[in-house]
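dude i think i finally got it to work??
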Amino acid sequence: MAGRRARTGRGWDASPPRTGDAADPPRPRRGRRAAEQQADEPASTPRDESEVAREICLRQLAVRPRTRAELAGALAKRGISEQVSAEVLDRYDEVGIIDDAAFARAWVSSRHNGRGLARRALANELRQRGVDGEVATEALGELDEETEAATARALVDRKLRTARGEPDAVFRRLVGMLARKGYPPGVAIRAVKDALAAQSAEAAEFAEQIDADALAEAEGELDRDSRPVD
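look at this
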């Protein structure tokens, strides 16, 4: 039987066309006139810096309310000039989009009710966000001592439900917890002492031995000594 001849047609075993073969689609040739026209076209106009600044601010404000200082910092990180930043932020001040006083009041209410933070911790957070001292003081003034003491007691009562250990160890842990939330030594010690006295006979006996005033004074002195000197 004669050998079979290899298929060389355009079927499934046809060889792909080589570069430059007739099967290749012709490439369009660009003339000199087309190249010159493209070179003469103006480049895309850069976006207005004020427009970019406004978009940055609106994206920041869409996440949560911001202070003027926070927005100024965000604009500086994106390379917005101080002049344009001031113009945009001044305008936002005028129309009420930025209101540091309202921000401070909302921050104090939210963080105190939600996290149980005391005035000292809240003042530090407002300072970190660039709120003016007088504005912060006014907002913190809405949180009176009675409310702060009641919140401290509620925090202790909640923790006592799952607290384990000897009364003295529990006492130290709870006072430390309140201190981290910004409560003064006197408020923290009295809140824990009163809560322990109401918990059990053993805890009440321990609480009776606590001189809250003397201990608060000692803790206050240690706190003052540990603060950095300006």
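The longest helix spans residues 100-115.
im so relieved honestly
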